[in-house]
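Ticket #4471: structure export looks truncated?
Reporter: QA, pipeline team
Priority: medium

Steps to reproduce: submit the single chain below to the structure queue and open the exported record.
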Amino acid sequence: MIADLTQNWKRIAAGLLSQPSGQAEAWAEAFAFLQSLGGNAPEGVTAIRGRDIYARVLSYPTIEREAGKFESHIDYVDIQAPLIGAEAIEWNPIRALEVKSAYDQENDVVFYVTPERSFGRVFLMPGMFAVLFPDDAHMPQLRVPGEDSVKKVVIKIRHALVSP
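Actual output as written to the record:
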């Protein structure tokens, strides 16, 4: 997992951008789209590069940890970024977790048993992002003090486009 301020994406992703040109272009397209969004972005799905790179803007109330679920994706890398409000995301490497439900190919998701403790927890607010790779189990939607809801974008990049 990578997390930082959106304005720093090029610095943080320097290694990603040094990949072969097609891979670098995919990252650049995704972050250009992210930087074009504001709190007034309409909810729904937007194709950036068909099903290879697309974005979903959504809103929801945040939840307590006990109600959360760890998940990971095999076919896509996520870039998650709040537009309004804030949320926390917990992180664990998938190898440290027990699978709760087998891979659902249609929805590209695996769910895991929630451990007592996580390897990390990141608080995301507008102007920040998290990149989550297929080996990053994550539990989004978590409540942070003073914020009961979040409007965010999840940009999906087909893993094959950006894998070495």
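Status: closed, not a bug. The export was complete when the record was re-opened. Leaving a note from the reviewer for reference: The first strand starts at residue 2 and ends at 5.
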